[in-house]
TrEMBL record:
<protein>
    <submittedName>
        <fullName>Uncharacterized protein</fullName>
    </submittedName>
</protein>
């Protein structure tokens, strides 16, 4: 039975890429970078959703909520990880969002990284 979840245009044409550093023994940061390289749309979509929240007047946003929205909408659209949208990447994506949009810093709670 075909998936009924929306797919991002063109993803069906992308082959599964395998990076030598995308192994369970690699650091979380290395695995995140490999995932992010394979799935640049995730950051764009997180930015879009965050901007919508800002426009709506939200004062706090949880990255968990944003991840669940992406899972709901695009659950089958990621490449390069056994989990479609790994919770280990949440803190890394928040940091990327804040690098690109420093004015969003009050919106997110950022804790020290436990593992690099």
């Amino acid at each position: 039975m075909p998936s009924r979840q929306p797919r991002l245009p063109g993803l069906e044409d992308i082959e599964q890429l395998v990076y030598p550093d995308h192994t369970p023994s690699a650091s979380i940061q290395t695995r995140f970078e490999a995932f992010h390289e394979l799935n640049p749309w995730v950051l764009r979509e997180l930015e879009r959703r965050t901007a919508e929240c800002v426009e709506a007047g939200w004062r706090r946003i949880g990255i968990g909520m944003l991840f669940e929205l992406l899972r709901f909408r695009y659950g089958q659209a990621t490449r390069g990880d056994e989990f479609r949208l790994n919770n280990n990447w949440r803190s890394r994506y928040v940091r990327l969002l804040l690098e690109r949009h420093p004015d969003w810093e009050p919106l997110f709670e950022v804790r020290a990284l436990r593992a690099v």
